[in-house]
TrEMBL record:
It is a multi-pass membrane protein. It comes from Paraburkholderia lacunae. The lineage of its organism: Bacteria, Pseudomonadati, Pseudomonadota, Betaproteobacteria, Burkholderiales. The chain crosses the membrane at residues 17-36, 69-87, 170-189. This is Fatty acid hydroxylase. It holds the Pfam family FA_hydroxylase. Keywords: Lipid metabolism, Membrane, Oxidoreductase, Transmembrane, Transmembrane helix. One of its GO terms (biological process) is membrane lipid metabolic process. Residues 100-234 form the Fatty acid hydroxylase domain. InterPro entries: Fatty_acid_hydroxylase (IPR006694), Sterol_desaturase/TMEM195 (IPR051689). GO terms for molecular function: glyceryl-ether monooxygenase activity; iron ion binding. It comes from the Bacteria. It is found in: Endomembrane system. One of its GO terms (cellular component) is endomembrane system.
Length: 282
């Protein structure tokens, strides 16, 4: 029997991938235009920016390819654990309550997962790709090791389905809320939010999380609301003129897209915050 024509499926995959990457590119462009107004670093590596753009295209394709697998795994886990313990409203003013509940829950899970990424050596080997950038700018937003998205699909996101039974459209809205905040937090933008600097994640608050200075290690983990850093004792409130250099303590950084794709397998593991703190203490 002749195999069915794979071209329509490939075309559909390519269209979905390009649509997602168009969104990312649009946010990169808008972010770069905003950054140009008041940059923290005036001279940044164009080679690194090109690497970030290319790596984002590949990691987006890998994530798109893995979506059916992670979606099926999430449904299986939720059904296995008897998901939907709390039914969230899908009509009227209850929609706002539902979106808020999902946003707070996802943000807390993101915070906890981020803590694990810095605490467990295997997770840190992957996550250190994101921290390796000395050029801190909006194109860094999506420079996460591609396998981390799979881990979230299998381990973290099903927990939301176990806790809540919610209309898919509301879940989509809650997920989209994180998008602009995440891109904003990675901007190379000198902005003074004053007393609001610890209200929502922003370029200065998150830059301290990427800092190479030992006093900033394991601080400011939040993705959206610094509330979690305050509650769990990991908040570092930035001083008005505190804009530290970023990157790993050994200055390791991928020199190519290929190097980024096999980053955790590289010979040197450098940049472990715990190791850096130990060296400072000595």
């Amino acid at each position: 029997m002749l195999a069915s024509n794979p071209l329509p499926a490939l075309w559909h995959f390519a269209c979905e991938w390009w649509f997602r990457y168009e969104i990312v590119l649009s946010l990169f462009i808008v972010g770069a235009l905003i950054e140009a107004r008041r940059p923290v670093q005036h001279l940044q590596s164009r080679a690194v920016i090109r690497l970030n753009l290319a790596y984002s295209a590949i990691s987006t394709a890998l994530g798109q390819a893995a979506r059916p697998l992670t979606a099926a795994a999430s449904v299986w886990i939720v059904n296995l654990l008897g998901g939907g313990l709390i039914v969230l409203p899908a009509h009227g003013w209850g929609v706002f309550v539902s979106v808020l509940a999902l946003v707070l829950t996802i943000d807390l899970l993101e915070y906890l997962f981020h803590r694990l990424q810095h605490a467990w050596p295997l997770l840190w080997r992957m996550h250190s790709l994101h921290h390796s950038a000395e050029s801190f700018n909006v194109t860094l937003t999506t420079r996460h090791y591609w396998f981390e998205a799979l881990l979230k699909g299998f381990l973290m996101f099903p927990l939301v389905g176990v806790l809540f039974r919610v209309d898919p459209s509301i879940a989509g809205i809650a997920t989209l809320v994180f998008l602009p905040v995440n891109f904003f937090a990675h901007m190379n933008l000198r902005i003074n939010l004053g007393r609001f600097v610890t209200w929502v994640n922003n370029p200065q608050y998150h830059r301290l999380h990427h800092s190479r200075r030992a006093e900033h290690f394991d601080k400011n983990f939040t993705q959206m609301f610094p509330l979690w850093d305050r509650l769990f004792g990991t908040m570092w409130t930035p001083a008005p003129h505190e804009w530290p250099p970023t990157g790993l303590d050994d200055a390791a950084e991928p020199a190519s897209v290929l190097a980024a794709l096999y980053w955790p397998l590289r010979r040197r593991t450098g940049g472990d915050p715990a190791a850096a703190v130990a060296r400072v203490a000595e």
